Amino acid sequence: MIKVEKLHFSYTNIPFIENMSFDVNNGEIFGFLGPSGAGKSTLQKILTGVLTKYDGSVEVDEKEVRHAGPAFYERIGVDFEFPSLYEKLSARQNLRFFASLYPQSRDIDRLLESVGLLLESDKKVMYYSKGMKSRLNFIKALIHDPQVLFLDEPTSGLDPTNARIMKDLILAEKAKGKTIILTTHNMHDAAELCDRVAFIVDGRINALDTPRKLVMSKGASKITYTYLVDDKEVTKEALLKETEKDALLHKLISENAILSIHSSEPNLNDIFLEVTGRTLI
Ligand SMILES: Nc1ncnc2c1ncn2[C@@H]1O[C@H](COP(=O)(O)OP(=O)(O)OP(=O)(O)O)[C@@H](O)[C@H]1O
Ligand SMILES: [Mg+2]
């Protein structure tokens, strides 16, 4: 579906993206996970033909994106970081206008209802809150029922309820067979939504795999147990895969002297830090 090979790109005379290659499969949710300034939005802009002065090859449906024409823009839907809406028009008028640019469109009322905006659809967008604008911008990207969706930070700025609605809508698009490329710095969203995740820092991909494999390949699960020494609680940690070597643990179990025991798996944030040396925030 998407094939990026030996991509180079710079905003100035200093190279930013250097020799980046990856593929996105048909029907998958592919995530760019990285901290602020990593290059996530830059990549989205290259993949959607907004930034065309790149070297190397970026193909969507076997066509080079820098030569993309109207047919390409009918195939893709874009929900970028900053909503691009007409403030003086109502939500419904915005959607009607954007729908008129395409040969086909989805049902506007159903889209508005899906993000809880139907009752306020005749309000001018200038009176919308930030979260309402994000939701409207998202359904604007769906209006022509595109095959490929590019979503830049789709849950940022949303409260937990609306973030949940947004994630369910993204999963519903995937269930219809759509290919989705999203960016996030939220490891929970990446782990929940993405089939595969690319870790991005300073314009580079540091790792790329399923969230599960990224966690399993690098991180080690731990157990933490507590016991009493002279009436004082002591805490000790051990790697789950090395508990058979932990003589103290065996002794405490045999004496029934364990006060508490917990196991914990590393999360994507821990792995991101281990692989890139950077945190996600
Ligand atoms: N038009 C531009 N001209 C020059 N530099 C730019 C331009 N747009 C972005 N940059 C720089 O490119 C780098 C990557 O920016 P980008 O917006 O892709 O990051 P991001 O990963 O999307 O970050 P965030 O999570 O904050 O959205 C940053 O250092 C940024 O300052
Ligand atoms: Mg960004």
Oligomeric organization of the protein chains: single chain
| Beta-strand residue percentage | 25-35%
Give the overall pLDDT as a whole number: 93
Tell me roughly what share of residues is in helical segments: 25-40%
Globular, elongated, flat, extended or rod-shaped: what is the shape?
A: globular
What is the rounded distance between the termini? 31 Å
Q: Which distinct ligands sit in these coordinates?
A: adenosine-5'-triphosphate, magnesium ion
What composes the largest sheet?
6 strands, mixed
The sequence of SSEs as H and E is EEEHEEHEHHHEHEHEEHEEHEH
Quickly give the CATH architecture of the largest domain: 3-Layer(aba) Sandwich
Strands of the biggest beta sheet: in what spatial order?
A: 6-7-8-3-9-10
- Tell me the CATH superfamily of the largest domain: P-loop containing nucleotide triphosphate hydrolases
State the low-pLDDT regions, or none. none
* SSE class: alpha/beta
So what's the CATH class of the largest domain? Alpha Beta
